[in-house]
């Protein structure tokens, strides 16, 4: 139902040559160190996404501490969530140049710094900078590499692997909600944020576990997957030919630039050999020159890959199904975030605090969310099941729950709806799989960066919008209705665009026959 990466026109260089030779599978693909990558990504989701899902606890503390409006205070949480995702395209540039491991380690340090500095906040605007921006950028620098690395290490069990790793969000929301409640009660919210900052330094350990695959292993993965997908239908074959022809033209100057860079490095190496016979100082200077040259080549190649993905002939935006996917992401994420931020306030308004203290509604969403991701991932990996159809069904279930949530007034009814929200939102584990099917593993970092950037805009605007509507109407009902309707618009884009793309080749062939 959706276009694969062949439909966009991306090629992987020597895939045809690699497919003609006997391929020795790498032990780390679908096994071995791949499961350590899943474990690393699992803890990243606990420490980043899980803690963000528990920000409703801190949001109540900030309301009492600073006496600001709900709309303004909600910006702190939404900034952190939104910036984590919005920086995705720029983090893709870092990954292209530095790799996932270095990017994640730097991000872990930034995230911890943001939490620690926020403990000294004197007003809400201070939190905008420290928690919203600093911790948000750090989170984004760890989150995207965690998702990309799982996609690189898995071929056959991608949906299951992504499902297992992203269950960390559910575990994290449950654990961090209980942890932050305890820390705020025992030590106050400032010390709670300081302790959370120390815990967040474990993100650096998770980043260190992200060992990159060798280029040979990546090529073998591309070749094996392309051989397994030769019989798939190509919905965009007429547009793919144009893009491929453009890409061939754009590859020529890239090859010339690479050959020029190689010549520079060779000349530096020859000069270095001659320098050994002259003096040690000259040799030391030439080594520095060689290092700078190699770094320059790496930066140029990384930037060229990043730039071509967004603005080149093989731009991701030439795939209209991918564009529809981006539009959907602009509306979807806020519908999931709003309940986490505002449910504690809703429970207090309905006088259900005593029951919610025993078993919080946000914890119900988090626990069922874990099972939803695993179960949906297992179902999507079945050969007779379409990942796209599972993805759409989960979206329809979630939007229905968002629209019916304001109608519930008892704890039991709210718990049932929250459980359905948790299960259906398990489709988040399928987003990297759907994205990879659209653009391929080579462009996964940049493509998924765009998707989570759109999610970030949704998360950035959703909670403050809900708080602003409450300040006007003194009810949260309209917040859920409006976000649900916007979410439905995004789902309609996903339904309409693939149908249009399927009709176009048929219409074109009919016109050619008439001519």
Automatic annotation (TrEMBL):
Membrane association type: Multi-pass membrane protein
Biased amino acid composition, Basic and acidic residues: 249-259
Keywords, ordered alphabetically: Membrane, Transmembrane, Transmembrane helix
Major facilitator superfamily (MFS) profile domain span: 37-502
Keyword match Transmembrane: yes
UniProt cross-references to InterPro entries, sorted A to Z: MFS, MFS_dom, MFS_trans_sf, Proton-linked_MCT
Protein name: MOT14 protein
Record organism: Piaya cayana (Common squirrel cuckoo)
PANTHER family: MONOCARBOXYLATE TRANSPORTER, MONOCARBOXYLATE TRANSPORTER 14
TM segment ranges: 33-55, 75-96, 103-121, 127-148, 160-180, 192-210, 321-343, 358-376, 388-405, 411-431, 443-466, 478-496
Protein localization: Membrane
Primary location recorded for the protein, binned into one broad class: membrane
One Gene Ontology CC term in the entry: membrane
MF-aspect GO terms: monocarboxylic acid transmembrane transporter activity
Gene3D superfamilies tied to this protein: MFS general substrate transporter like domains
Region (Disordered): 247-267
């Amino acid at each position: 139902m959706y276009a694969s990466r062949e439909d966009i026109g991306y090629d992987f260089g020597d895939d045809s040559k690699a497919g003609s030779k006997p391929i020795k599978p790498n032990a780390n693909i679908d096994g071995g160190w791949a499961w350590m990558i899943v474990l690393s990504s699992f803890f990243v989701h606990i420490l980043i996404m899980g803690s963000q899902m528990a920000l409703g606890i801190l949001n109540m503390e900030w309301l009492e501490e600073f006496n600001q409006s709900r709309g303004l205070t909600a910006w702190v949480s939404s900034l952190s969530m939104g910036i984590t995702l919005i920086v995705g395209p720029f983090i893709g540039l870092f990954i292209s140049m530095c790799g996932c491991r270095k990017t994640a380690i730097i991000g872990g340090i930034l995230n911890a710094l943001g939490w620690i500095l926020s403990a000294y906040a004197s007003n809400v605007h201070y939190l905008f900078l420290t928690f919203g921006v600093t911790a948000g950028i750090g989170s984004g620098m760890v989150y995207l590499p965690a998702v990309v690395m799982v996609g690189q290490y898995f071929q056959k069990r991608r949906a299951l692997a992504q499902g297992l790793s992203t269950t960390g969000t559910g575990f994290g929301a449950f654990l961090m909600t209980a942890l932050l409640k305890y820390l705020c009660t025992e030590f106050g919210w400032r010390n709670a944020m300081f302790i959370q900052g120390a815990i967040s330094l474990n993100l650096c350990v998770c980043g260190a576990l992200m060992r990159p695959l060798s280029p040979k292993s990546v090529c073998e993965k591309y070749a094996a997957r392309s051989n397994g997908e030769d019989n798939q239908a190509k919905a965009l074959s007429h547009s793919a030919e144009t893009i491929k022809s453009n890409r061939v033209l754009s590859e020529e100057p890239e090859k010339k630039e690479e050959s020029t860079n190689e010549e520079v490095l060779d000349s530096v190496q020859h000069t270095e050999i001659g320098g050994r016979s002259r003096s040690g100082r000259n040799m030391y200077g030439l080594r520095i020159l060689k290092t700078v040259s190699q770094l320059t080549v790496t930066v140029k190649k990384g930037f060229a890959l990043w730039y071509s993905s967004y603005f080149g002939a093989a731009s991701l935006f030439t795939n209209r199904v991918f564009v529809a996917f981006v539009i959907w992401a602009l509306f979807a994420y806020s519908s999931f975030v709003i309940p986490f931020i505002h449910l504690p306030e809703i429970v207090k308004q309905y006088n259900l605090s005593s029951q919610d203290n025993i078993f919080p509604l946000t914890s119900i969403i988090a626990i069922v969310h874990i099972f939803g991701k695993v179960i949906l991932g297992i179902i999507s990996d079945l050969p007779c099941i379409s990942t796209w159809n599972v993805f759409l069904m989960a979206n329809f279930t979630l939007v229905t729950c968002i629209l019916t949530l304001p109608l519930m007034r008892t704890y039991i009814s709210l718990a049932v709806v929250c459980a359905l929200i948790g299960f259906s939102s398990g489709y988040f584990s399928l987003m990297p799989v759907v994205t990879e099917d659209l653009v391929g593993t080579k462009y996964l970092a940049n493509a998924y960066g765009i998707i989570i950037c759109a999610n970030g805009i949704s998360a950035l605007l959703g909670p403050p919008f809900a708080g602003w509507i409450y300040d006007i109407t003194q009810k949260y009902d309209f917040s859920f209705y409006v976000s649900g309707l916007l979410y439905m618009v995004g789902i309609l884009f996903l339904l309409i665009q693939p149908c249009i793309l399927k009709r176009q080749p048929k219409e074109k062939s009919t016109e050619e026959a008439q001519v």
